Amino acid sequence: MRIVESKDKSFAQTLSAVLQRGESDTSTVEVSVKAILDDVRARGDKAVIEYTKRFDRVDVKGALQVKEKEFNSALKAIPKKDLSIIELASERIESFHKNQLQNSWFITEPDGTILGSRVTPLERAGIYVPGGKAAYPSTVLMNAVPAKVAGVDTVVMTTPPNKDGVNPYVLAAAKVAGVDRVFKAGGAQAIGALAYGTESIPKVDKITGPGNIYVATAKRLVFGIVDIDMIAGPSEILIINDGTGEPSWMAIDLLSQAEHDELASSILITTSKKTAKAVAAEVERLLKKLKRRGIAGASIDKYGLIIIAGDLKEAAEISNRIAPEHLELFVERPFELLGLIRNAGAVFLGKDTPEAAGDYLAGPNHTLPTGGTARFSSPLGVWDFIKRTSVIGFSQRGIDSLGRDIKRFAEIEGLEAHGKSVEARLKRNK
Protein backbone atom coordinates (compact mmCIF):
# COMPACT_ATOMS: atom_id res chain seq x y z
CA MET A 1 0.00 0.00 0.00
CA ARG A 2 1.06 3.55 -0.63
CA ILE A 3 2.17 5.47 2.44
CA VAL A 4 1.94 9.26 2.53
CA GLU A 5 2.35 11.85 5.26
CA SER A 6 -0.31 14.49 5.74
CA LYS A 7 2.36 17.18 5.57
CA ASP A 8 3.59 16.04 2.12
CA LYS A 9 2.94 18.45 -0.75
CA SER A 10 1.42 15.60 -2.79
CA PHE A 11 -0.98 14.52 -0.04
CA ALA A 12 -4.03 16.51 -1.19
CA GLN A 13 -3.69 15.31 -4.78
CA THR A 14 -3.15 11.70 -3.74
CA LEU A 15 -6.20 11.71 -1.48
CA SER A 16 -8.33 13.44 -4.10
CA ALA A 17 -7.56 10.71 -6.64
CA VAL A 18 -8.86 8.08 -4.22
CA LEU A 19 -12.00 10.02 -3.32
CA GLN A 20 -12.95 10.63 -6.95
CA ARG A 21 -12.72 6.96 -7.88
CA GLY A 22 -16.47 6.48 -8.26
CA GLU A 23 -16.96 9.41 -10.60
CA SER A 24 -17.45 8.39 -14.23
CA ASP A 25 -19.34 9.39 -17.35
CA THR A 26 -22.64 7.50 -17.18
CA SER A 27 -24.20 9.09 -20.27
CA THR A 28 -23.96 5.90 -22.36
CA VAL A 29 -25.36 3.80 -19.53
CA GLU A 30 -28.16 6.31 -19.01
CA VAL A 31 -29.31 5.99 -22.63
CA SER A 32 -29.49 2.20 -22.33
CA VAL A 33 -31.23 2.32 -18.96
CA LYS A 34 -33.81 4.86 -20.11
CA ALA A 35 -34.69 2.64 -23.08
CA ILE A 36 -35.20 -0.33 -20.75
CA LEU A 37 -37.33 1.71 -18.36
CA ASP A 38 -39.52 3.01 -21.18
CA ASP A 39 -39.95 -0.50 -22.53
CA VAL A 40 -40.94 -1.90 -19.13
CA ARG A 41 -43.40 0.94 -18.67
CA ALA A 42 -44.97 0.19 -22.05
CA ARG A 43 -44.93 -3.63 -22.14
CA GLY A 44 -44.83 -4.67 -18.48
CA ASP A 45 -44.15 -8.33 -17.73
CA LYS A 46 -43.24 -9.17 -21.32
CA ALA A 47 -40.37 -6.70 -21.29
CA VAL A 48 -39.13 -7.83 -17.85
CA ILE A 49 -39.17 -11.48 -18.94
CA GLU A 50 -37.33 -10.73 -22.19
CA TYR A 51 -34.61 -8.70 -20.44
CA THR A 52 -34.21 -11.42 -17.79
CA LYS A 53 -33.62 -13.94 -20.56
CA ARG A 54 -31.20 -11.63 -22.37
CA PHE A 55 -29.12 -10.34 -19.45
CA ASP A 56 -29.38 -13.14 -16.88
CA ARG A 57 -29.72 -15.95 -19.43
CA VAL A 58 -32.67 -17.33 -17.50
CA ASP A 59 -36.08 -18.14 -18.94
CA VAL A 60 -38.60 -17.71 -16.13
CA LYS A 61 -41.27 -19.11 -18.46
CA GLY A 62 -43.70 -16.34 -17.68
CA ALA A 63 -43.63 -16.97 -13.94
CA LEU A 64 -41.89 -13.99 -12.36
CA GLN A 65 -43.11 -14.50 -8.81
CA VAL A 66 -41.40 -16.98 -6.49
CA LYS A 67 -43.89 -19.62 -5.39
CA GLU A 68 -44.42 -20.96 -1.89
CA LYS A 69 -42.95 -24.33 -2.80
CA GLU A 70 -39.70 -22.57 -3.81
CA PHE A 71 -39.52 -20.97 -0.37
CA ASN A 72 -40.07 -24.33 1.26
CA SER A 73 -37.37 -25.93 -0.87
CA ALA A 74 -34.95 -23.15 0.05
CA LEU A 75 -35.57 -23.62 3.76
CA LYS A 76 -34.87 -27.33 3.42
CA ALA A 77 -31.78 -26.78 1.26
CA ILE A 78 -29.70 -24.81 3.74
CA PRO A 79 -28.19 -26.25 6.94
CA LYS A 80 -30.25 -25.66 10.11
CA LYS A 81 -27.25 -23.94 11.71
CA ASP A 82 -27.12 -21.42 8.86
CA LEU A 83 -30.85 -20.80 9.12
CA SER A 84 -30.49 -20.16 12.86
CA ILE A 85 -27.76 -17.58 12.13
CA ILE A 86 -30.06 -15.80 9.67
CA GLU A 87 -32.80 -15.82 12.29
CA LEU A 88 -30.41 -14.46 14.94
CA ALA A 89 -29.32 -11.66 12.60
CA SER A 90 -32.95 -10.81 11.85
CA GLU A 91 -33.80 -10.68 15.56
CA ARG A 92 -30.88 -8.39 16.34
CA ILE A 93 -31.61 -6.10 13.39
CA GLU A 94 -35.28 -5.92 14.44
CA SER A 95 -34.40 -5.19 18.06
CA PHE A 96 -32.06 -2.35 17.08
CA HIS A 97 -34.44 -0.77 14.59
CA LYS A 98 -37.39 -0.77 16.99
CA ASN A 99 -35.54 2.03 18.79
CA GLN A 100 -36.00 4.20 15.69
CA LEU A 101 -39.80 4.11 15.76
CA GLN A 102 -41.37 7.56 15.82
CA ASN A 103 -44.73 8.52 17.29
CA SER A 104 -47.28 11.00 16.07
CA TRP A 105 -47.60 14.06 18.30
CA PHE A 106 -50.09 16.85 18.85
CA ILE A 107 -50.16 20.06 20.86
CA THR A 108 -53.13 22.21 21.81
CA GLU A 109 -52.54 25.94 22.15
CA PRO A 110 -54.39 28.01 24.79
CA ASP A 111 -56.94 29.23 22.23
CA GLY A 112 -57.82 25.63 21.24
CA THR A 113 -55.79 25.45 18.05
CA ILE A 114 -54.41 21.96 17.40
CA LEU A 115 -51.04 21.42 15.71
CA GLY A 116 -49.16 18.19 15.19
CA SER A 117 -47.31 15.68 13.10
CA ARG A 118 -48.89 12.38 12.11
CA VAL A 119 -46.50 9.49 11.41
CA THR A 120 -47.68 6.76 9.02
CA PRO A 121 -45.78 3.94 7.27
CA LEU A 122 -45.51 3.65 3.50
CA GLU A 123 -48.03 1.30 1.91
CA ARG A 124 -45.56 -0.53 -0.34
CA ALA A 125 -41.80 -0.77 -0.30
CA GLY A 126 -39.68 -2.44 -2.97
CA ILE A 127 -36.26 -3.83 -2.10
CA TYR A 128 -33.65 -4.74 -4.67
CA VAL A 129 -31.20 -7.52 -3.81
CA PRO A 130 -28.24 -8.20 -6.13
CA GLY A 131 -28.06 -11.81 -7.22
CA GLY A 132 -26.97 -14.05 -10.04
CA LYS A 133 -23.72 -15.73 -9.03
CA ALA A 134 -23.54 -14.00 -5.64
CA ALA A 135 -25.82 -14.36 -2.62
CA TYR A 136 -26.57 -11.51 -0.22
CA PRO A 137 -29.04 -12.63 2.46
CA SER A 138 -27.74 -9.84 4.69
CA THR A 139 -29.01 -7.28 2.15
CA VAL A 140 -32.47 -8.84 2.38
CA LEU A 141 -32.51 -8.50 6.17
CA MET A 142 -31.09 -4.98 6.28
CA ASN A 143 -33.76 -3.69 3.89
CA ALA A 144 -36.81 -5.75 4.74
CA VAL A 145 -36.63 -5.80 8.54
CA PRO A 146 -36.69 -1.98 9.02
CA ALA A 147 -39.59 -1.77 6.57
CA LYS A 148 -41.54 -4.33 8.57
CA VAL A 149 -40.69 -2.61 11.86
CA ALA A 150 -41.98 0.66 10.36
CA GLY A 151 -45.29 -1.05 9.59
CA VAL A 152 -45.11 -1.10 5.79
CA ASP A 153 -48.17 -2.99 4.50
CA THR A 154 -46.45 -4.83 1.63
CA VAL A 155 -42.74 -5.46 1.13
CA VAL A 156 -41.89 -6.56 -2.41
CA MET A 157 -38.46 -7.91 -3.34
CA THR A 158 -36.81 -8.32 -6.73
CA THR A 159 -33.58 -10.22 -7.33
CA PRO A 160 -31.96 -11.58 -10.50
CA PRO A 161 -32.29 -15.36 -10.82
CA ASN A 162 -29.71 -17.92 -11.90
CA LYS A 163 -30.41 -21.11 -13.85
CA ASP A 164 -31.58 -22.81 -10.63
CA GLY A 165 -33.87 -19.97 -9.62
CA VAL A 166 -33.17 -17.69 -6.64
CA ASN A 167 -30.36 -18.49 -4.21
CA PRO A 168 -31.82 -20.49 -1.27
CA TYR A 169 -30.08 -18.30 1.33
CA VAL A 170 -31.68 -15.21 -0.19
CA LEU A 171 -35.11 -16.85 -0.19
CA ALA A 172 -34.64 -18.07 3.38
CA ALA A 173 -33.73 -14.54 4.51
CA ALA A 174 -36.80 -13.18 2.72
CA LYS A 175 -39.00 -15.68 4.53
CA VAL A 176 -37.45 -14.91 7.91
CA ALA A 177 -37.72 -11.15 7.38
CA GLY A 178 -41.37 -11.32 6.37
CA VAL A 179 -41.05 -10.22 2.73
CA ASP A 180 -44.52 -10.51 1.22
CA ARG A 181 -43.70 -11.18 -2.44
CA VAL A 182 -40.45 -12.03 -4.27
CA PHE A 183 -39.90 -11.72 -8.01
CA LYS A 184 -37.22 -13.16 -10.29
CA ALA A 185 -36.04 -9.97 -11.93
CA GLY A 186 -32.90 -7.90 -11.72
CA GLY A 187 -31.17 -4.95 -13.33
CA ALA A 188 -32.80 -1.79 -14.62
CA GLN A 189 -35.86 -3.78 -15.69
CA ALA A 190 -36.60 -4.71 -12.07
CA ILE A 191 -36.32 -1.08 -10.97
CA GLY A 192 -38.69 -0.07 -13.78
CA ALA A 193 -41.18 -2.73 -12.75
CA LEU A 194 -41.15 -1.55 -9.13
CA ALA A 195 -41.48 2.09 -10.17
CA TYR A 196 -44.23 1.75 -12.78
CA GLY A 197 -45.85 -1.57 -11.89
CA THR A 198 -46.52 -4.46 -14.28
CA GLU A 199 -49.17 -7.16 -14.53
CA SER A 200 -47.28 -9.20 -11.90
CA ILE A 201 -45.06 -6.76 -10.01
CA PRO A 202 -46.88 -4.07 -8.02
CA LYS A 203 -45.91 -0.42 -8.15
CA VAL A 204 -44.25 0.61 -4.89
CA ASP A 205 -43.79 3.89 -3.04
CA LYS A 206 -40.07 3.55 -2.39
CA ILE A 207 -37.19 1.45 -3.72
CA THR A 208 -34.20 0.56 -1.55
CA GLY A 209 -31.19 -1.68 -1.96
CA PRO A 210 -27.81 -1.66 -3.74
CA GLY A 211 -26.91 -2.66 -7.29
CA ASN A 212 -24.53 -2.15 -10.18
CA ILE A 213 -24.25 1.00 -12.28
CA TYR A 214 -27.35 0.06 -14.30
CA VAL A 215 -29.43 -0.39 -11.17
CA ALA A 216 -28.07 2.82 -9.62
CA THR A 217 -28.79 4.77 -12.81
CA ALA A 218 -32.31 3.34 -13.02
CA LYS A 219 -33.00 4.34 -9.41
CA ARG A 220 -31.82 7.86 -10.16
CA LEU A 221 -34.04 8.12 -13.25
CA VAL A 222 -37.23 6.90 -11.52
CA PHE A 223 -36.72 9.13 -8.47
CA GLY A 224 -39.72 11.43 -8.29
CA ILE A 225 -42.07 8.75 -9.55
CA VAL A 226 -41.07 6.79 -6.48
CA ASP A 227 -38.72 7.59 -3.63
CA ILE A 228 -35.34 5.89 -3.30
CA ASP A 229 -32.95 5.38 -0.41
CA MET A 230 -29.67 6.54 -1.96
CA ILE A 231 -27.35 6.08 -4.93
CA ALA A 232 -24.81 3.64 -3.56
CA GLY A 233 -21.21 3.98 -4.69
CA PRO A 234 -18.16 1.74 -4.22
CA SER A 235 -17.61 0.44 -0.69
CA GLU A 236 -15.04 2.07 1.59
CA ILE A 237 -13.38 1.70 4.97
CA LEU A 238 -11.26 4.13 6.96
CA ILE A 239 -9.33 3.14 10.08
CA ILE A 240 -7.94 5.68 12.56
CA ASN A 241 -5.09 4.30 14.65
CA ASP A 242 -3.00 5.73 17.48
CA GLY A 243 0.03 3.50 16.94
CA THR A 244 -1.23 0.70 19.18
CA GLY A 245 -2.76 -2.65 18.36
CA GLU A 246 -2.08 -5.62 16.10
CA PRO A 247 -1.07 -4.57 12.53
CA SER A 248 -2.46 -7.80 11.04
CA TRP A 249 -5.93 -6.98 12.42
CA MET A 250 -5.91 -3.60 10.72
CA ALA A 251 -4.60 -5.16 7.52
CA ILE A 252 -7.34 -7.77 7.28
CA ASP A 253 -9.96 -5.13 8.09
CA LEU A 254 -8.69 -3.06 5.17
CA LEU A 255 -8.82 -6.11 2.92
CA SER A 256 -12.36 -6.91 4.06
CA GLN A 257 -13.54 -3.94 2.01
CA ALA A 258 -11.01 -4.29 -0.79
CA GLU A 259 -12.41 -7.72 -1.64
CA HIS A 260 -15.81 -6.19 -2.51
CA ASP A 261 -14.72 -4.80 -5.87
CA GLU A 262 -11.87 -3.10 -7.69
CA LEU A 263 -13.28 0.36 -6.93
CA ALA A 264 -13.46 -0.17 -3.16
CA SER A 265 -11.30 2.12 -1.04
CA SER A 266 -9.32 1.10 2.05
CA ILE A 267 -7.58 3.85 4.02
CA LEU A 268 -5.62 3.81 7.27
CA ILE A 269 -4.78 7.01 9.12
CA THR A 270 -2.20 6.41 11.84
CA THR A 271 0.02 8.60 13.99
CA SER A 272 2.86 6.03 13.83
CA LYS A 273 5.30 5.52 10.95
CA LYS A 274 6.20 2.15 12.42
CA THR A 275 2.57 1.04 12.37
CA ALA A 276 2.14 2.35 8.84
CA LYS A 277 4.99 0.18 7.54
CA ALA A 278 3.89 -2.85 9.55
CA VAL A 279 0.29 -2.67 8.27
CA ALA A 280 1.46 -2.23 4.68
CA ALA A 281 3.60 -5.35 5.00
CA GLU A 282 0.72 -7.32 6.53
CA VAL A 283 -1.63 -6.29 3.74
CA GLU A 284 0.77 -7.73 1.16
CA ARG A 285 1.22 -10.93 3.16
CA LEU A 286 -2.47 -11.54 3.83
CA LEU A 287 -3.53 -10.56 0.32
CA LYS A 288 -1.73 -13.58 -1.12
CA LYS A 289 -3.95 -15.91 0.94
CA LEU A 290 -7.31 -14.49 -0.18
CA LYS A 291 -9.47 -16.28 -2.73
CA ARG A 292 -10.56 -12.89 -4.06
CA ARG A 293 -6.98 -11.59 -4.16
CA GLY A 294 -7.38 -10.45 -7.77
CA ILE A 295 -10.19 -8.06 -6.87
CA ALA A 296 -8.71 -7.06 -3.50
CA GLY A 297 -5.27 -6.53 -5.01
CA ALA A 298 -6.60 -4.23 -7.73
CA SER A 299 -8.49 -2.22 -5.12
CA ILE A 300 -5.46 -1.90 -2.83
CA ASP A 301 -3.12 -0.96 -5.69
CA LYS A 302 -5.39 1.80 -7.01
CA TYR A 303 -7.31 3.04 -4.01
CA GLY A 304 -5.54 1.74 -0.93
CA LEU A 305 -3.78 4.39 1.15
CA ILE A 306 -1.98 4.74 4.47
CA ILE A 307 -1.77 8.28 5.82
CA ILE A 308 0.59 9.31 8.60
CA ALA A 309 -1.03 12.12 10.61
CA GLY A 310 0.54 14.40 13.19
CA ASP A 311 -1.93 13.48 15.91
CA LEU A 312 -5.41 12.03 16.42
CA LYS A 313 -7.06 15.43 16.10
CA GLU A 314 -5.63 15.80 12.61
CA ALA A 315 -6.62 12.22 11.84
CA ALA A 316 -10.21 13.02 12.78
CA GLU A 317 -10.14 16.17 10.63
CA ILE A 318 -8.99 14.18 7.61
CA SER A 319 -11.61 11.52 8.30
CA ASN A 320 -14.36 14.15 8.50
CA ARG A 321 -13.22 15.47 5.13
CA ILE A 322 -13.49 11.98 3.64
CA ALA A 323 -16.80 11.16 5.41
CA PRO A 324 -16.29 7.39 5.07
CA GLU A 325 -18.95 4.72 4.81
CA HIS A 326 -17.25 2.62 7.53
CA LEU A 327 -15.00 4.17 10.18
CA GLU A 328 -13.05 2.06 12.65
CA LEU A 329 -11.62 3.86 15.67
CA PHE A 330 -8.78 1.39 16.27
CA VAL A 331 -7.40 3.27 19.27
CA GLU A 332 -6.96 2.86 23.02
CA ARG A 333 -9.71 5.36 23.92
CA PRO A 334 -12.31 5.27 21.13
CA PHE A 335 -15.03 7.16 23.03
CA GLU A 336 -12.72 10.15 23.46
CA LEU A 337 -12.05 10.20 19.72
CA LEU A 338 -15.73 9.71 18.86
CA GLY A 339 -16.43 13.25 20.03
CA LEU A 340 -14.28 14.59 17.18
CA ILE A 341 -16.10 12.61 14.48
CA ARG A 342 -18.82 14.44 12.57
CA ASN A 343 -19.09 12.55 9.27
CA ALA A 344 -19.33 8.76 8.96
CA GLY A 345 -21.91 6.22 7.90
CA ALA A 346 -21.11 3.85 10.77
CA VAL A 347 -18.47 4.07 13.50
CA PHE A 348 -16.85 0.95 14.98
CA LEU A 349 -15.43 1.49 18.44
CA GLY A 350 -12.22 -0.18 19.58
CA LYS A 351 -9.94 -2.95 18.42
CA ASP A 352 -12.44 -5.77 18.99
CA THR A 353 -15.03 -4.34 16.61
CA PRO A 354 -14.31 -5.33 13.00
CA GLU A 355 -16.43 -3.76 10.30
CA ALA A 356 -17.71 -7.22 9.36
CA ALA A 357 -19.65 -7.36 12.64
CA GLY A 358 -21.77 -4.47 11.41
CA ASP A 359 -22.35 -6.15 8.05
CA TYR A 360 -24.14 -9.13 9.55
CA LEU A 361 -25.05 -9.48 13.20
CA ALA A 362 -24.48 -6.33 15.26
CA GLY A 363 -27.93 -4.88 14.55
CA PRO A 364 -27.42 -1.41 13.01
CA ASN A 365 -28.06 -1.18 9.29
CA HIS A 366 -25.24 -1.89 6.87
CA THR A 367 -26.84 0.13 4.06
CA LEU A 368 -24.73 3.24 4.49
CA PRO A 369 -23.93 6.49 2.66
CA THR A 370 -20.85 6.27 0.44
CA GLY A 371 -18.69 8.64 -1.59
CA GLY A 372 -18.62 11.37 1.04
CA THR A 373 -22.42 11.58 1.31
CA ALA A 374 -22.19 10.83 5.03
CA ARG A 375 -21.71 14.61 5.28
CA PHE A 376 -25.47 14.98 4.80
CA SER A 377 -27.15 11.57 4.83
CA SER A 378 -27.73 8.65 7.20
CA PRO A 379 -27.86 4.85 7.23
CA LEU A 380 -31.02 3.14 6.03
CA GLY A 381 -33.52 2.86 8.87
CA VAL A 382 -37.13 2.82 9.96
CA TRP A 383 -37.29 6.53 9.13
CA ASP A 384 -36.89 5.62 5.43
CA PHE A 385 -40.20 3.73 5.47
CA ILE A 386 -42.40 6.29 7.21
CA LYS A 387 -43.76 9.68 6.28
CA ARG A 388 -44.87 12.62 8.39
CA THR A 389 -48.03 14.57 7.74
CA SER A 390 -48.54 17.98 9.30
CA VAL A 391 -51.86 18.42 11.11
CA ILE A 392 -53.38 21.89 11.62
CA GLY A 393 -56.71 22.62 13.27
CA PHE A 394 -57.53 26.26 14.03
CA SER A 395 -60.21 27.10 16.54
CA GLN A 396 -62.42 30.14 15.99
CA ARG A 397 -60.38 32.03 18.58
CA GLY A 398 -57.18 30.92 16.86
CA ILE A 399 -58.09 32.16 13.39
CA ASP A 400 -59.44 35.40 14.89
CA SER A 401 -56.15 35.89 16.71
CA LEU A 402 -53.80 35.27 13.76
CA GLY A 403 -56.09 35.97 10.82
CA ARG A 404 -55.12 39.60 10.19
CA ASP A 405 -51.45 38.72 10.14
CA ILE A 406 -52.06 35.78 7.81
CA LYS A 407 -54.07 38.04 5.48
CA ARG A 408 -51.30 40.64 5.46
CA PHE A 409 -48.67 37.99 4.69
CA ALA A 410 -50.77 36.92 1.70
CA GLU A 411 -50.96 40.53 0.52
CA ILE A 412 -47.16 40.84 0.77
CA GLU A 413 -46.86 37.88 -1.61
CA GLY A 414 -49.58 39.20 -3.93
CA LEU A 415 -51.92 36.23 -3.44
CA GLU A 416 -55.35 37.83 -3.21
CA ALA A 417 -57.50 34.70 -2.80
CA HIS A 418 -55.27 33.52 0.05
CA GLY A 419 -56.03 36.69 1.95
CA LYS A 420 -59.73 36.63 1.15
CA SER A 421 -60.04 33.02 2.39
CA VAL A 422 -58.97 34.25 5.81
CA GLU A 423 -60.98 37.48 5.59
CA ALA A 424 -64.18 35.47 5.00
CA ARG A 425 -63.77 33.85 8.39
CA LEU A 426 -62.91 37.12 10.13
CA LYS A 427 -66.11 38.73 8.79
CA ARG A 428 -68.11 36.00 10.51
CA ASN A 429 -67.94 37.96 13.78
CA LYS A 430 -69.01 41.27 12.31
Task: Describe the SSE topology.
Elements: E1 2-5, H1 11-19, H2 27-43, H3 45-55, H4 68-77, H5 80-97, E2 105-108, E3 114-121, E4 124-128, H6 137-150, E5 154-159, H7 168-177, E6 181-184, H8 187-196, E7 206-208, H9 213-222, E8 227-228, E9 236-241, H10 247-258, E10 265-270, H11 273-287, H12 293-303, E11 304-308, H13 312-322, E12 326-330, H14 334-338, E13 346-349, H15 355-360, E14 386-393, H16 396-412, H17 416-426
Parallel strand pairs: 1-11, 4-5, 4-7, 5-6, 7-8, 9-10, 9-12, 10-11, 12-13
Antiparallel strand pairs: 2-3, 3-14
Helix pairs in contact: 2-3, 2-8, 2-9, 3-8, 4-7, 5-6, 5-7, 6-7, 8-9, 10-11, 10-12, 16-17
Number of domains: 3
| Spatial shape | globular
Count of separate DSSP helical elements: 17
Major beta sheet, strand line-up: 1-11-10-9-12-13
Rounded mean pLDDT is 96
What is the CA-atom radius of gyration, in angstroms?
A: 26 Å
Walkthrough of the structure:
With 430 residues, this protein is of the alpha/beta class. It has three domains: 2-22 and 233-362, Nitrogenase molybdenum iron protein domain (Rossmann fold), CATH 3.40.50; 27-228, Rossmann fold (3-Layer(aba) Sandwich); 394-429, no CATH class. The chain has helices at 11-19, 27-43, 45-55, 68-77, 80-97, 137-150, 168-177, 187-196, 213-222, 247-258, 273-287, 293-303, 312-322, 334-338, 355-360, 396-412, 416-426, and strands spanning 2-5, 105-108, 114-121, 124-128, 154-159, 181-184, 206-208, 227-228, 236-241, 265-270, 304-308, 326-330, 346-349, 386-393. It has a six-stranded parallel β-sheet with strand order 1-11-10-9-12-13, sandwiched between helices. A five-stranded parallel β-sheet has the order 6-5-4-7-8, sandwiched between helices. A three-stranded antiparallel β-sheet has the order 2-3-14, with no helix packed on it. Helix 5 crosses helix 7 (168-177). The longest helix has 18 residues, at 80-97.
